[in-house]
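STRUCTURE REQUEST FORM
Protein name: F-box DNA helicase 1
Source organism: Hypotaenidia okinawae
Requested output: structure tokens
Priority: standard
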Amino acid sequence: KIERGQIVKIMAFAGTGKTSTLVKYAEKFADLNFLYVTFNKAVADRGKRVFPRNVTCRTFHSLAFESVGKLYKDKGKLNFSKMSVLSLCGLLQNRKGQSLFVRGKTVS
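Status: completed
Returned output:
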């Protein structure tokens, strides 16, 4: 039996029964919670369909984003609804021979 907090890494060729074995193991130890980590979303999504409820299926990327990436998700994106006219002027580059005058046009 795998002890709580223990990490198991399974490496085997395609079609050798890795997933089937893990499904049966998770069913046998339904009182434990498992984390199934994959490299791609398609495999994680398939895992969500085949594993019992005590198994959480995630990708390495989703785990990293949850712990660190979400802090930076808005970096580099402009949220114009929270910007003032003055702060928008700071975004406009005043190139030589150009003014900061910008003509706006409403399209409906």
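Reviewer notes: Residues 18-89 form one domain. The mean pLDDT is 80.
Form closed.
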